[in-house]
Specification:
This protein has 196 residues and is α/β, with parallel strands linked by helices. The chain is 56% helix and 15% strand. Helix 5 (101-114) crosses helix 7 and helix 6 (127-137) crosses helix 7.
């Protein structure tokens, strides 16, 4: 099987990580010898802001204020990992990448550099559904309603244009999935839309 590339995108709390994990497991069954490259930028950001450097402290202040990190830092979060660790033969999974149109356009240059096309899995959930999910999961960055609202505002303002871009750019195949189903139903719909 040729190496596959997937981007998971959707409002906060929609289950991107869970669905990415389930698809990775299925892909390992379909291609037992294939390796998986997985990159989740949110976890990288959370580790980055714990460090003592000047840039980390500035990013931590942005995080504590509930604002969106600048695009250049978001691009660095995935670009240096790709450059250092991606071998090019793996199936690639990206979770939390391309939170804005400029970042999506930059990511396209990376895919072109590596000779890849990507399937974008957009987990479509309503804002109200996302709010309820975030507040119920109890993660430290999900307990303040004002912060949750800010993150959902970013999605509407910044990420939605990136999804529109994916929908028309030839490097991507966009599949939209109803994310308000059970985990199993969402996975089944993804697999069906992939034609697997």
């Amino acid at each position: 099987m040729l190496p596959q590339t997937f981007i998971f995108i959707g409002r906060s709390g929609c289950g991107k990580g869970t669905q990415s994990e389930l698809l990775q497991k299925l892909l390992k069954e379909k291609d037992p010898n294939g390796e998986i490259f997985y990159l989740e930028t949110g976890a990288n950001f959370r580790e980055f802001i714990k460090k003592d450097g000047y840039s980390s402290k500035l990013a931590d202040a942005i995080y504590k204020n509930g604002d969106r990190q600048p695009d250049f830092l978001a691009v660095w979060m995935w670009s240096h990992v790709l450059i250092d660790k991606f071998k090019g033969t793996e199936h690639a999974f990206f979770d939390g990448i391309t939170r804005s149109l400029p970042e999506a356009m930059t990511f396209t240059t990376a895919l072109e550099f590596y000779g890849r096309k990507a399937t974008v899995v957009c987990l479509d959930v309503s804002r109200a559904w996302s709010e309820a999910r975030l507040l119920s999961r109890g993660r430290s960055d999900d307990v303040d309603m004002d912060e949750v609202k800010k993150r959902l505002d970013w999605f509407d303002k910044d990420s939605a244009p990136a999804i529109d871009y994916f929908n028309v750019h030839g490097t991507y195949k966009l599949i939209t999935v109803n994310g308000e189903q059970t985990i199993e139903e969402v996975h089944k719909e993804i697999v069906a839309k992939l034609g697997w």
